[in-house]
Amino acid sequence: MESSPVSSSSPPSSVFSFDLPSAPHSSDHDQQPSLRTVTHLEQLRVEEKVAEIYRILNDASPHTKTIMMELWRDNHILFLSRGLNQLGPNFRILDASRPWLCYWIIHSMSLLGESLDIEVENSIIEFLSHCEDKQGGYGGGPGQMPHLATTYAAVNTLITLGSDAALSSVNRDSLHKFLLRMKDSSGAFRMHHAGEIDVRACYTAISVASILNIMDSELVVGLGDYIIRCQTYEGGIAGEPGSEAHGGYTFCGLATMVLIDEVDRLHLPSLIDWVVFRQGVECGFQGRTNKLVDGCYSFWQGGSLSLIQTLLPIAEKQTQSPLTSIEHQTLEGNSDGSTSQVQNPENEDMGTEKGDDIGFRFIRMGTRVAAPLFHSVALQQYVLLCSQVLEGGFKDKPGAHRDYYHTCYCLSGLCVSQYSFSKTPNSPPPSRAMLGPYSNLLEPIHPLYNVLLDKFYRAHEFFFGMKKRGTI
Questions:
Q1: For the region Disordered, what residue ranges are annotated (predicted)?
Q2: CB distance 358 to 350 below 8 Å
Q3: All domains of the chain, ordered by start, with CATH?
């Protein structure tokens, strides 16, 4: 297994000593005209913008540096709060994504430690109830067809609200039937009736089933086989078999395999290699090989590495066993026709029954590594300096515009980075793990679901208690 770009020793308390990416020179283009593709020039422009930001930081006074590295919490809360109250006409294009807007905004506010007024919370619960289809699942708006993506967003929103009214508003019985209707013969899921089949659909279905405690063998059957087929020669996971590895799909595939307790079937060493080398000279993550850096991958790629920190014993065992590979698992069948599986050394902790309480057990396992698998302090530098907008909100890269999607996932990635040295997700991070003042610290999340950890515990108590009581 290739080593990560992070040294096993503790990282510096700041990244000011980094070798900054140099700006492109015209002579370079003259000498290598064959490299002047659109993608190449865009990459050079992004590197130049990021390098200029880092030069300003390096040349600034200590007081100015401190200000530059602050998380502008109040401005972000103001930006998010305005989005909950009223959105402009430009948002009409997102009419089919309204539960997503609820999730992006409310999850971001919860990360920042901001709570909602009871009136606002009740209005969100009421709105999402109008998005819930009578046959199960949530649509993108009232009267729209149910969709797995907006179902995930709606459920995560209600869990983030966390009240009895929010949690009890979910019709788990009809939602389970909806998930079964979306189940495909391939083992994967469709996003909606007659819709596309991909790893994103698999994750949103299983994440919802797991956190609501409605997972069963019917939902899981054949799912691991499908996701294994999506792991590429590079090690990352594609949206569907035969496609290119992608950061968002890699997180979705990896998290799904954890939640169905089949993560040992993935080839984790190559997956680790692919993800760690997506952190580029800008200090942020790219989503695909040879693509531009994007702040949202602070979570999609950083979150994957956060999960893998708990799974390292499995990856190490696979490294020691040459036969532990995708080809061996999928092509070398057993005598009874089934495929071989690597034994998970953590099964005694996570549970082996499908639908078991894996999300809760996974978070209790913690991590045994001394340092994260990525340069978490560098990632915080990219998010705070290159994605943060002074007026509030986050964007994907310098020159782009802020939006609620990137605000949500930049903050989620910042959170993952801050807690990357913690043995458990809710233990306070050491000072060396933080960039900027300690007031930058966000609330911890459950990395499998991307909801606040205390909200996960609240939902776990609520929905697993329902099952013990024999109620729906």
A1: 1-35, 329-354
A2: yes
A3: 73-326+358-468 (1.50.10.20)
